[in-house]
Structures
1.
Amino acid sequence: MPFDALPRGNPRDGWDDVCQGCKGLIVPGQEVAQVRFDADPTSGRQLEQMNGAYHAECARPILSVKRALDMLGRPFS
């Protein structure tokens, strides 16, 4: 894709960011969800790699997993 070579944070003629899920561009006016997993060095999970902006539809499965993990707390610590 022609936009792949552009560095993040550069103005892109109205394009805001790239969706972490589908890797498509997020344009102004689209519904966006910010996903944030905290780093947990005790469990060895690398979920913080999934942090970032997602299209609202792309974020639904990720947010479902996040809610389930939040409900479980840290049972394996």
2.
Amino acid sequence: MRHSARQARTITRNRARQVRAMRRAVKAVATGAPQTARTYLVAGGLDDRIAKNYAGAFSRGVEPTAKVERCIKLRGRVTRPVQVKLYDRATFLGRLATYRPGVSSVARLFAAIAL
């Protein structure tokens, strides 16, 4: 297989993954139930990888609307319960209006979502 075909397949696979993540996030936000910061950021148009990296810093110092416990999968069959912070839309938008990451290119993405 040629390099260009492999590269094209990788691009297609990554775009499909991004579209699936965005659709899932938009549907979750449309329900009106409190969601995680990462879900709101992905629904706003941020890449899922960037949203995952900045969701923790974004939610630091903000009082969550609710806290729930969910299980995450570790290696093998092992799972562990972790606490997840959920925010309603008003709380999320209030924090989005003030928070900007230190990286200028990512800060522009956050500013675009805030509008």
